[in-house]
């Protein structure tokens, strides 16, 4: 850990430094002074808890605590590979989500799922998470187009398919 000595210079006519004066001198220090971090503190620790094997959904699920002092955060891609290595699984079958960084930084908590195979991942994982990890395509077209299509289809509710407008 880096330790620094702070020397505050006061004018000679000051008899005793007041707390306000000390605070002013302290705040006038350059910002980079506080941003210096020892590289030993930058190590990332991953701990898992509440581990559960869910046979019905063909996966292992757990809460993940990431301790990252000195780092803003750890990427989900990096977490997927490290968790996969911890549990002897491929990175492709690991899904991580719901990460919240604790106040003050240094610790993040989230959720991880490790599926038995890629087919189970594609079957049970929500589409938006499949898109994030690159196993599915995001729907094309805009929000307005989807809404217009939905409203056009509402007119034909209960009507045989032959009278519906053709698929776009």
Automatic annotation (TrEMBL):
The keyword Amino-acid biosynthesis does not apply. GO terms for biological process: translation. InterPro entries: eRP_eS24_sf (IPR053709), Ribosomal_eS24 (IPR001976), Ribosomal_eS24_CS (IPR018098), Ribosomal_uL23/eL15/eS24_sf (IPR012678). It comes from the Eukaryota. SUPFAM superfamilies: Ribosomal proteins S24e, L23 and L15e. GO terms for cellular component: ribonucleoprotein complex; ribosome. The keyword Zinc does not apply. Keywords: Ribonucleoprotein, Ribosomal protein. PROSITE patterns: RIBOSOMAL_S24E (PS00529). Residues 141-168 have a biased composition (Basic residues). GO terms for molecular function: structural constituent of ribosome. It holds the Pfam family Ribosomal_S24e. Residues 135-168 are annotated as: Disordered. Belongs to the eukaryotic ribosomal protein eS24 family. HAMAP family: Ribosomal_eS24. This is 40S ribosomal protein S24. It comes from Mucor ambiguus.
């Amino acid at each position: 850990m880096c330790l620094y000595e702070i020397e505050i210079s006061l004018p000679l006519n000051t008899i005793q430094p007041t707390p306000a004066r000390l605070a002013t001198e302290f705040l006038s220090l350059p910002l980079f002074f506080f941003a210096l971090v020892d590289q030993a503190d930058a190590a990332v620790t991953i701990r898992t808890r509440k581990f559960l094997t869910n046979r019905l959904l063909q996966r292992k699920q757990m809460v993940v605590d990431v301790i990252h002092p000195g780092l803003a955060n750890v990427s989900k891609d990096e977490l997927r590979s490290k968790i996969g290595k911890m549990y002897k699984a491929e990175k492709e079958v690991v899904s991580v989500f719901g990460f919240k960084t604790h106040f003050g930084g240094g610790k993040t908590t989230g959720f991880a799922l490790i599926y038995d195979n890629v087919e189970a991942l594609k079957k049970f994982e929500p589409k938006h998470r499949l898109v994030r990890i690159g196993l599915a395509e995001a729907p094309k077209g805009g929000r307005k187009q989807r809404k217009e299509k939905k409203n056009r289809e509402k007119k034909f509710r209960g009507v045989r398919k032959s009278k519906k407008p053709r698929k776009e």
